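User: I'm curious whether this sequence folds into something compact or stays loose and floppy. Could you predict its structure so I can see for myself?
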Amino acid sequence: MEREKQFIQSQGGKAPLLADALDGTSMKRMILQFEKKAYRNQEMRIKFPDIPEKFMESEVELNDMIQEMHVMATMPELYNILVELNAVQSLMQLLSHDNTDISIGVVDLLQELTNVDVLNETEEGAEGADALIDALVDAQVVAQLVQNVERLDETVKEEADGVHNTLEIVENLTEFRPELCPEAAQQGLMAWLLKRLKTKMPFDANKLYSSEILAILLQNHDENRTLLGELDGTDVLLQQLAAYKRHDPVTGEEVEMMENLFNCLCSALMLAANRERFLKGEGLQLMNLMLREKRLSRNSAVKVLDHAMTGTEGTDNCQKFVDILGLRSIFPLFMKTPKKNKKGPNSGDLEEHILSIIASMLKNCTGTQHQRLLNKFTENDHEKVDRLMELHFKYLERVRDCDHKIEKERNDLKFFGGEIDDDMEDQFYLRRLDAGLFSLQLIDYIMLDVCSSGVQTIKQRVMQILNMRGGSVKAIRNIMREYAGNIGDAKDDESKEAEQNRILQLVDKF
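Assistant: Here's the prediction. I'll summarize afterward.
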């Protein structure tokens, strides 16, 4: 086997590409030549299975032919011919060829054929691109690629490149057709990615790429989040991230991988079942440690906690977070927002996540845990209330600036006879959220909740600061009524209505 590989590599790797331009006829001729060489090699291997000298020449010819076929990647409009002549099936069969040099050659070719820039290059090429992707999907390309990649030895450079190109094919396919993500994950890809992330090897480009592909698979697909949980993927992510609780990643690429893993965890936590796994896997304890250690992982740990504790599904995590003394870690960050790292959430997003965590705990905690949370707002002469009011005025000003700009645009539109439709209203609301409206809603929610359920001195301090700075109770009520009217992330109408009633009751009490 080793001699066959050395012989193929000694023949110079890639053959020169065809100089003359490719057209339909020359493409057909090339495919027929390829089929002949593949058949000849198969025949020689069956005849002389134990005498490499006999089939080696046909193998080199087949390898050269595969290299020549790279020229096809410049002509996506001719991909239909590849499909019509069943060349895709033949390439798929070669992915399981005994000589991994041949299977790596096929992977290399597929990576170029599926390059998204090539697929989207021209309108004529779009039809050919669709035909090729359909044929690859029908042939269960991902399952075949995973089978091939499982036998590659990444300590050999060519085989490590083969793994990288395999991941690139997956990225190409899912970018060109995002709805393929669940199917790809089910065909063994997710299990392989988790195994690759767990492998005890020095950090390298393939580990980074594996984390990227996993993040893509989880981004918008609940089926994949479910599969991740079933494969104990939340535990794998927590184990990999545990390395960064006391040590920072060494290179920029490793920082990127760490952020990908955090993003995977946030996506996974969108699913209620994974929140339970996160709780059992001591994810809260790990994130709490990261908050205290002040390493590069801290800011993203805040983001993960927000995802774990939000909504009614976050109740158990909220209660447990108070039990493990999480209040001691989160409130110093509330008092002074950490600076942004090279990667991870920026200061504005961080502030939003921290506020969201506190709001989630106020909604979800009960009994002694709820009381311990309220006590935080009275300690050190109500310093948390002072900070809350400081944030209220900061965000109120930002939102008002945005509102003035929008109002001017509305007036200009009316003046020139334009109409403001629902789409435009939605755009205006999104702009206000970007300007800080969501953070302001969270701040005012916290303010109303602690004034209602905390001791009298909290409300007295809030009113004192409002009067001192010329703030108004009416403005706060309006913000909260708008918040209640726009709650959209509740899973069902019943919980949405309950949350709206809760907010409006707080408004009335205020």
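Summary: The first helix runs from residue 2 to 10. The radius of gyration is 29 Å.
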